[in-house]
Every structure is written in C-alpha cells, then in structure tokens.
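anyone else get weird line breaks when pasting these?? whatever heres mine. first is seq + tokens for prot A
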Amino acid sequence: MESTYIQTLHPIQGKTNKRITLDKYTFIKENLINILSELELTHTELMEELYSRVKDNFSGGVQWYGETVKLDLEARDIIERTKTKPEKYKLKV
C-alpha cells in the first residue's frame, strides 16, 4: 500500500521543510501537542520528552521527525516560542 505524504512548512519565510509520511507526521504532532498541553519546555526538554514517550512505538529518528513537525507546527501557528530566556515552546492559545 502506498503511503500518503505531507509537505511540512517552515516558520521562516522562503525556507522549505521536509516531505514526510502523513502517519508519522500525525503521530509526532499528537505527541508534541499532548506534551505542550501539559508543560512549557525548552527545545532540549521537548525533544527528550518526545523521545521518552514515543521511542518504543516509532520507527525512525524521533528527534529528526520531532524537529520537522515542531517547525511545521510553528509555521501553522499551533505552537510558539516564548520570549523568555531560555526560550521555551508552548501551545498558542
């Protein structure tokens, strides 16, 4: 059966993000949203939390897919970076 792909977006105008399978995109997206609905995390904390939650149920590079989908969610205004130091990620309200 042929996979369905999604062209992910990049938050920086003019940059192109990756094309990945829709099932992996959806899985990572749901996990990132679930994590950020509970906590505001730095980039490192977010990727570590994502890895700990999905490592046993995901084939592929968790951090690579996590970064690709995180950028897409930023571009779609679903998540945002805080203005704090260190910078953290949170769901947009």
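and prot B, same format (seq, then tokens)
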Amino acid sequence: MMMLKFSVPTSVLVHQAVTKISADAVNGNFCILPRHTDYLTALVPGILIFTDADGNELFFANDHGLLVKRGREVFVSTRRAIQGSDLGALREAVHEQFERLGEADRVLQSAVASLEANFLRRFLEMQKELFS
C-alpha cells in the first residue's frame, strides 16, 4: 500500500491508501506500485487513475503539476483537477478546459512580456533625454 495525498492549491482532494497510480507525465504515461523506487515527475494535463485498497479505480482529470513518490508516500499537486467516473468525459474536460487555459496563459504571458519591453524601452528613452 501507498498513502496518496492529492491536492490543488485550495484543498486536499484525496488522502487515502492506494495500491496503484497511473498518470501522464512530460515523458509519457507511467504507473507506480508500492515497491517502485522513489520518483519525481512533472505532470501534464491528463488523467490520473488510482486504485484504492478495495480495488476500486478513481479517475481525475488533472492540469499541470508534480508527482513525488517517497517511500510509501505519494504526493500529487496540480493547479486544477476534476473527479469523474466516465473516462471519455474526463478526457474531453482535459482538452476543453486545461489545454485551452494553457493556451490562454501563453497568450497572456506574451502580452505581459510585450508590455514590459515597451515600458523598459520608454524608460530608457526618458533617461536618455534627461541626461543628454
């Protein structure tokens, strides 16, 4: 058995004993069992599946995050997560919500970088005029 603690910034979603965890990482899909070595990976938007002590599978759509396995403890932290029982609906949620928001984040970061560059350029121009 492993003890899984799965959280988002505002709450702990799961804190229970599990026998198996599967998720999507930057280097592909993976599975962790209790006797596997310690592990750290960056998660990508995908489906986190874990099997509880009774053999029931629980499914979460997750956003970017981190997974750390240390001994018999596994910590998962992600920005957003949605629990569900229908894998098809959860996969759709990943594509619709998390990946679309990821694109919006990239557009916003680009806009902020442009504003910062314009600010610095104007600041330097003002300094040049003042000290000329």
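btw re prot B: The longest helix spans residues 87-130. The helical segments are 87-130.
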